[in-house]
Amino acid sequence: MSTENEGTEVPPAPSAPPVPVASPAASPQAAAAAADGNAPTTPIPPVYPGAPGAPEQGGVATAAHASAGAAGGPQGPGTAPDGSWPPPPPATPAYADGGAGGGAGWGSSYHQPAPKPRNGRGGLVAAVLVAALVAGGLGGGLGYTLAKDNDDSGSTTVAASDSSASQVKRAPGTIAAVAAKSLPSTVTIEAESTSGEGGTGTGFVFDKQGHIVTNNHVVADAVDGGKLTATFPNGKKYDAEIVGHAQGYDVAVIKLKNAPSDLKPLALGDSDKVAVGDETIAIGAPFGLSNTVTTGIISAKNRPVASSDGSASSKASYMSALQTDASINPGNSGGPLLDASGAVIGINSAIQSSSSGGLGGSGQSGSIGLGFAIPINQAKYVAQQLIKTGKPVYAKIGASVSLEDSADGAKITDTGASGSAAVESGGPADEAGLKPGDVITKLDDHVIDSGPTLIGEIWTHKPGDKVTITYKRGGQEHTVQLTLGSRAGDN
Questions:
Q1: Does position 111 have pLDDT exceeding 80, yes or no?
Q2: Where does the pLDDT of residue 326 fall: very low under 50, low under 70, confident under 90, or very high at 90 and above?
Q3: Mind listing the pLDDT tens digit for each residue in 162-178?
Q4: What's the rounded Cα separation, in Å, for the pair 202 and 206?
Q5: Of 69, 130, 284, 465, which has the most beta carbons under 10 Å away?
Q6: Is residue 457 predicted with pLDDT exceeding 80?
Q7: Dihedral of CA 164/169/174/180: which sign?
Q8: Candidates 27, 333, 362, 450; catalytic one
Q9: Of the listed 97, 221, 250, 449, which one is catalytic?
Q10: Residue 207: per-residue pLDDT
Q11: Residue 7 contacts by C-beta under 8 Å, 6 or more apart in sequence?
Q12: Which one is predicted more confidently, 49 or 181?
């Protein structure tokens, strides 16, 4: 996504975590891209339809088609979306600056930036830095003179020798040890479209055959005949090709051409066993700074996040995310989120950032400690499907649900996509007795506050899984079990 919508007010959170709403970008880069017909994507604070600062949608509601794990286009009350999937961008917002999808979107652009004017904020920052350097030089000179003049006074300070410094031992569980072991298995990905647009993201070694896992939005520019490269920390660079990508999950797998024989896949952890407060380590290329390591903790689990690049052709992604306060910035997308042992527990995918464009006024916002990662248990399943068939497989309940913000649950709409039935005949929801107007409030033990939250929770499961649905009809609460169906592909 591209630059953040400035000045957007964030509404109070509902009883369950909120799902953001897309908003157009406002950066100079985004404006330039729009002028060429290649508008970038946008990270924004969560804004509900109808909330202050939310974009107008012609006064109509939107609906998600949960039968495909997705949604359709604009609709009037009780009507269905159009036949497109997933839901339209206006209803499903982007959270983050990261990756390469959409030109300047989601990641850190690797194009040479245009010279910045000397006035304004950028000039002020430069002036402050120059002043600091001058003062630092003066202070250093004075310090050296004073030290020389008082050299005979004696000193109790002892400097460590080079030999002793080189003998520092670091325990296996330290962050430095984890970083040293994990960095060689991460890559910086550059994706470029046939028109020359592109950006930078991150990925990690999935197996010894040369498969690299990353975000869909990182490689989106290279999907239709573009160029992909992956560079390891040792400087070795490889051309790569897309094996498969899942827009709904925001997961993609690429494969190195002429992959080396000594690849070391990162160990995969168990994201279901992660606890709030566990230490986290993120590796990526924030703003193009490859091989950057940051740390934090797991701030929350099962955080519903919906993201989209905001374009008319955008297909939204949904996740029940791991939230971390590790510093994640544009370019970290697709990189591994590790636990304290160095096992991958998630794929860094999105951030919520402030409206600031950063020190240089670059138009790309940075981390405010709200990062979101796709749980590795889900990403592993998706990656294996992509390697096996090249297409994603989504779980479904076979019902269309509203994307309106209600905080009361996911309401099954009166009609489905393109006027089809809201409840698919013979589908899981139909066999369980669900009907239009029913409001789903829980999936197993997870509270459902909206349609996007329901989709995100459904997609944490595999087709064939049995789940318990709690719903309300006519003010009465009911519980039913159903077996999730499946749908292959993003279309």
A1: no
A2: very high
A3: 555 556 777 778 999 99
A4: 13
A5: 284
A6: yes
A7: positive
A8: 333
A9: 250
A10: 96
A11: 53, 355
A12: 181
CB of 348 within 8 A of CB of 335?
yes
CB–CB of 106/200 below 8 Å? no
> Is 333 an annotated catalytic residue?
yes
pLDDT exceeds cutoff 50 at 421: yes
Q: What is the dihedral sign for C-alpha 77, 82, 88, 90?
A: negative
pLDDT greater at residue 490 or residue 133: 490
For residue 473, what are the contacts with CB-CB under 8 A and spacing of at least 6? 435, 437, 438, 439
- Runs of H (alpha helix) within 201-334: 216-219
Alpha carbons 317 and 88: distance in angstroms, whole number: 11
pLDDT tens string 357-393? 443 334 567 778 889 999 999 999 999 999 999 999 9
224 is catalytic: no
CA contacts within 13 A on the Cβ side of 346? 36
Residue 450 · residue 407 · CB < 8 Å:
yes
Residue 448's φ and ψ, nearest 5 degrees, are -110, 120
Q: Which residue has the tokens 């079990």?
A: 481
Q: Is 250 annotated in the active site? A: yes
Contacts of 50 (CB under 8 A, 6+ apart): 405
Dihedral sign computed on CA atoms, order 75, 79, 85, 87:
positive
Q: Whole-model pTM?
A: 0.68
Q: Tell me which of 50 and 475 has the higher pLDDT.
A: 475
For the record, the structure tokens of 281 come out as 């380590």
Residue among 471, 431, 477, 479 at smallest CA distance from 454: 471
pLDDT(7) > 50: no
Residue 460 per-residue DSSP state: T
C-alpha to C-alpha distance for 424 and 345, rounded to whole angstroms: 35
pLDDT computed for residue 381 by the predictor: 95
Q: Give the dihedral sign, CA 450/452/453/454.
A: positive
Catalytic residue among 65, 211, 217, 245: 217
| Residues 49 and 112 sit within 8 Å (Cβ to Cβ) | no
**Long-range Cβ contacts of 459-463 (<8 Å, 24+ apart):** 459/69, 459/248, 459/249, 459/318, 459/319, 459/320, 459/378, 459/394, 459/395, 460/320, 460/375, 460/377, 460/378, 461/395, 462/381, 462/395, 463/393, 463/394, 463/395, 463/396
